[in-house]
Amino acid sequence: MVLNDESCASANNRATSSERAPYGLRQWSGWVLGPAALLLTLLAAPPEGLSIQGWRTAGAALLMAIFWITEPSPIPATALLPLVRARCPRNYLLR
């Protein structure tokens, strides 16, 4: 198969258009499942033998894992989520 300038140009156009494509199902599912998992740990009682702080930390870790897998936001931004959680009012997270 011989590649000419036209076939290379059309391949480049396809790559450029796919980079600008809107979110797919994977990214949208991350925006839904991640916060849902965190909300579950904020509202539900922790399992027996696990402290409330450990349960909340598990929720934050689950949110981050879902975000890393589905990539609804850039991975470096996801890595900063524990800092955001640390700045939340303590009494809100530890009810």
Per the principal axes of the C-alpha atoms, what is the gross shape? globular
Gyration radius, rounded: 20 Å
**How much is the average pLDDT?**
79
- How many beta strands in the DSSP annotation? 0
Give a quick rundown of the structure.
With 95 residues, the chain is mainly α. The protein has helices at residues 5-19, 25-43, 52-70, 75-79, 81-86, 90-93.
Protein described:
The chain is mostly helical and 95 residues long. It has one domain. The chain has helices at residues 5-19, 25-43, 52-70, 75-79, 81-86, 90-93. Helix 2 (25-43) packs antiparallel against helix 3. The mean pLDDT is 79.
Keywords:
about 100 residues, mainly alpha, globular, about 70% helix
What does the secondary structure layout of this molecule look like, with pairings?
Blueprint: H1 5-19, H2 25-43, H3 52-70, H4 75-79, H5 81-86, H6 90-93
Helix pairs in contact: 2-3
